[in-house]
């Protein structure tokens, strides 16, 4: 059996893994913060770099949703990825649950993962809307906290490790998950020998940096697919009219003129961030605030609307075309993605099963 290096080696081609939950049509935050980079990687990375993008449906059920809705969201997520320009011949796109080895590796990693580490992670706390200092020693929290939500970073680690990912592009809020994946790999390698590759965070060096896009209705929280207010987010498939209406109703403030101040002016700063992320001249939000210092919020919103409409141009049409053209094309892409992802996962699982004695 081929012995693969236990570290992100310079000799092996890079493997870049990332995922998105099918919890709704992706929004502007998903696009600016992640998906747009997935597309750019196809052009910036050498041909031998493996790009693996997963629609992580098993993660989506940590906050249960109706089965029909999940089925629809999975299909829509696939169509959305293709519509933004992910090329299924260049990248592997697949649904996580189509590759059961992800769950198998999760179990194996769970046997060497530390509960203490997991309990300090922030995502389960934000999903339950409890403070960062919370622990499950608190009975009211323990009764609401499901095992899947608590342990999902182990599944996320398995997603990454099973494909021997050397790099994972993530925003700042996700970096602790990569650290945890490294911890899982280290624990496993310590127990069974150096078989798993330790992934690194991929720092993207493209023109537009990764940003956290905030909600339009509450700019102190991040834009999110599952927030109940639809006008809190711009979907990448919204029409120009919908985009205009949502930005027009975005919460700002009554301070005259423009300034970039995320603490005191979160609404205006969010709009400047969005404007900057589509700015052809690569101007940062502070520069834009200086250049547009005399604009009113209404005028800023008009500029932001134009840049978002132009930035998302064509995605809506391609998305609708994919979803209305019949099932054959999406089925075929899904089947091919599953085949490639299973092959990639199996390479690692053979090593893992042998090492563990299964
Ligand atoms: N508001 C955001 N700004 C920038 N990046 C964002 N991402 C999510 N929201 C923003 C990034 O998008 C990628 C895919 O996210 P995900 O679907 O896997 O999970 P999430 O972070 O939980 O996204 P949502 O939209 O908030 O979904 P729900 O409502 O279901 O929880 C990730 O790289 C994420 O950082």
UniProtKB/TrEMBL annotation:
EC number: 6.1.1.2
Name of the protein described by the UniProt record: tryptophan--tRNA ligase
Organism lineage string: Eukaryota, Fungi, Dikarya, Ascomycota, Pezizomycotina
One Pfam family, short name: tRNA-synt_1b
GO molecular function terms noted in the UniProt entry: tryptophan-tRNA ligase activity
PROSITE patterns xrefs: AA_TRNA_LIGASE_I
Family: Belongs to the class-I aminoacyl-tRNA synthetase family.
Superkingdom of the organism of origin: Eukaryota
CDD domains reported for this sequence: TrpRS_core (cd00806)
Keywords of the record: Aminoacyl-tRNA synthetase, ATP-binding, Ligase, Nucleotide-binding, Protein biosynthesis
InterPro entries the UniProt entry points to: aa-tRNA-synth_I_CS (IPR001412), aa-tRNA-synth_Ic (IPR002305), Rossmann-like_a/b/a_fold (IPR014729), Trp-tRNA-ligase (IPR002306), Trp-tRNA_synthetase (IPR050203)
Species in which this protein is naturally found: Neonectria punicea
């Amino acid at each position: 059996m081929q012995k693969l290096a236990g570290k992100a080696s310079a000799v092996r081609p890079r493997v870049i893994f990332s995922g998105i939950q099918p919890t709704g049509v992706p929004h502007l935050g998903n696009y600016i913060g992640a998906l747009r980079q997935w597309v750019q990687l196809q052009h910036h990375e050498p041909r031998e770099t493996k790009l693996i993008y997963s629609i992580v449906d098993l993660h989506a059920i940590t906050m249960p949703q109706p089965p029909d809705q999940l089925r629809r969201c999975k299909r829509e997520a696939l169509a959305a990825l293709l519509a933004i320009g992910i090329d299924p011949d260049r990248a592997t796109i697949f649904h996580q649950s189509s590759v059961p080895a992800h769950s198998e590796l999760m179990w194996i990693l769970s046997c060497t993962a530390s509960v203490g580490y997991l309990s300090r992670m922030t995502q389960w706390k934000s999903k339950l809307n409890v403070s960062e200092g919370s622990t499950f020693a608190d009975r009211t929290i323990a009764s609401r906290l499901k095992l899947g939500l608590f342990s999902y970073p182990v599944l996320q680690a398995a997603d990454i490790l099973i494909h021997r990912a050397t790099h994972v592009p993530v925003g700042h809020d996700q970096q602790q998950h990569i650290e945890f994946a490294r911890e899982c790999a280290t624990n496993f390698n310590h127990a069974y020998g150096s078989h798993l590759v330790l992934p690194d965070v991929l720092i993207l060096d493209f023109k537009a940096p990764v940003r956290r896009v905030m909600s339009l209705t509450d700019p102190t929280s991040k834009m999110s697919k599952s927030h109940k207010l639809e006008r809190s987010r711009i979907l990448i498939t919204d029409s120009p009219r919908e985009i205009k209406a949502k930005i027009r109703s975005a919460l700002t403030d009554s301070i005259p003129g423009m300034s970039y101040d995320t603490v005191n002016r979160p609404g205006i700063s969010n709009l400047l961030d969005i404007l900057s992320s589509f700015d052809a001249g690569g101007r940062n939000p502070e520069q834009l605030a200086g250049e547009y210092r005399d604009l009113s919020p209404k005028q800023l919103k008009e500029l932001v609307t134009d840049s978002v409409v132009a930035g998302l141009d064509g995605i809506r049409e391609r998305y609708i075309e994919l979803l209305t053209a019949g099932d054959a094309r999406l089925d075929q892409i899904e089947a091919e993605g599953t085949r490639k992802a299973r092959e990639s996962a199996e390479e690692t699982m053979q090593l893992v099963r042998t090492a563990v004695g299964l």
